[in-house]
Amino acid sequence: MNDVVTPPATQQDTGLKAGSVPLKPHGKVIAVTSGKGGVGKTFVSANLAAALAKRGHKVLVLDADLGLANLDVVLNLHPKITLHDVFTGKAKLEDAILQAPGGFSVVLAGSGMVEYSRLTPEVRDEFLRIMSSLVPNFDVVLLDTGAGISDVVLFAVSLASEVLMVATPEPTSLTDAYATIKVLVGQQQRQAVRVLVNQAARAGAGQAITHQLQQVLDRFVVTDPDRPIRLIHMGDIPIDPEVRQAIMRRQLMMQTTPGCPAGQAITQLAIKLEESVIPARA
Amino acid sequence: MSSPIPPTLIDLQHLRLDDARALLAHARQDSHPQPGEAPLHYLQRLIDGLSELSLKDPLTGLGNRRYLHAALERAIETVARSGDAVLLLLIDIDHFKHINDAHGHLAGDQVLQAVANRLALCVRPMDMVARYGGEEFALLLPNCRPACGRAVADRVRAAIESLRIEVAPSTQLQVTVSIGGAYAPEWVRSTTELWIERADLQLYRAKHNGRNQVMLELPQQISVSAEEKGLLFSHLPLPVPEAAGQLPDAAPENAGTPIPRVIA
Known about the structure:
The structure holds 2 protein chains of 2 kinds.
Chain A: H1 10-16, E1 28-34, H2 41-54, E2 59-64, H3 71-75, H4 83-87, H5 93-96, E3 98-99, E4 105-107, H6 121-134, E5 140-147, H7 151-158, E6 162-167, H8 171-188, E7 192-200, H9 205-220, E8 230-238, H10 241-249, H11 253-256, H12 261-276
Parallel strand pairs in A: 1-5, 1-6, 2-4, 2-5, 6-7, 7-8
Antiparallel strand pairs in A: 3-4
Chain B: H1 18-26, H2 39-54, H3 65-82, E1 87-93, H4 96-103, H5 105-122, E2 128-133, E3 136-141, H6 146-161, E4 165-168, E5 171-173, E6 177-183, H7 192-208, E7 214-216, H8 226-232
Parallel strand pairs in B: 6-7
Antiparallel strand pairs in B: 1-3, 1-6, 2-3, 4-5
């Protein structure tokens, strides 16, 4: 037998299938993702983390958008130690966990991670190792992922038990969200994707959009009859001048104006997650 | 930084060039200075020749593994920006060891050369053929639409199967190949290792499924068809002239337009 008999690439399978990650999560891992960039993923991650923290949960936000991180900008943090230092062995993981202004913890990627934006087996292993030591220490871990369908994004999402897809009502954002959900269903056999509509212009917009996405999925995406794909509408964040204000001032909206319409929407989202996915505190 | 050395200051006598010359001479390349050729020009020619050799498989004349990796890197960069469909095929000769055992290594080499020549004839000028390892070859096919991938791979498989390779007077051999293929993920910067791993997994499937066949990874369904978009946006209000100012509050569900029903 001289034929090339390479063992099947089980490693890659582990990387891409949901639920096969050797994590025994105490907390819930929620991937905050989107089909298109610039729809407010990082804004949602940071403010949702603050809202959950305010409600008594121990929350970590992990910058899973390796190399293209904006969390530091949104939170106005200037970290000395980042994920990059952990990857290169210069620092311990504990030292990379920072306290963000909102009462939650954050691990930033650091600009040096650009060279890791290619998903090599080493990066996968290191990321898995980091995740499995972080997750047991928190009630909720939010993964602020990149946009779209790159290897890194799909891998980061595969580590999460829940997916929160952020989309705006714009047609391009919806198309990209739909395409991403298709891949998540096809590659990771996801059955539930949670949809959050940002910059909603009117009440009920998000519900209609989620309904529409669900209709298109039902008609065009062939799934196992026993494993239908279900979209769960998690709320709308209305267009609100306070959002822009907070971003421009590089402050956390949930700290400065938590009572504004967008702030109330984020609190509602936190409550909804609490009711559906976040385990009650021991 | 020092300025470039003027050509006249290079004295070829001080350089040990015998090995380089021998390598090039072995590859039937002109390895001696032309009469009147400037030493710098001659050295450049020597270096170019060696660079070319370093990317070639000496037995078959195809690109080697190093060449393949460089080509894959380039393809990944292109695909990440253009979204083109680029297919990588890994091609492995079935039961090659039997040929070596039964007919000798010289016959084995002849089979490798014949397969290499046939592969080089199968492809378009923009495609790339390389010898990836012992009896394993790689084809890189840019602009190969997913709908065509299987047909192309199967044509390659059939072309090899139809070969009659004369390894000795009155001894003709017929060989088959197993082919595994994977597309570069569109719009995405992946790695050569992952790409090869994915194609290799398909090759493994082709081998285990009985050889002499093609297995391709199904392309990711990341495109959104016009029908899908039609349904996705059917709830949106129709565009109104700008002068009208206000958008209607909501359009009735599936306003009037029939939705094409496309079910595969």
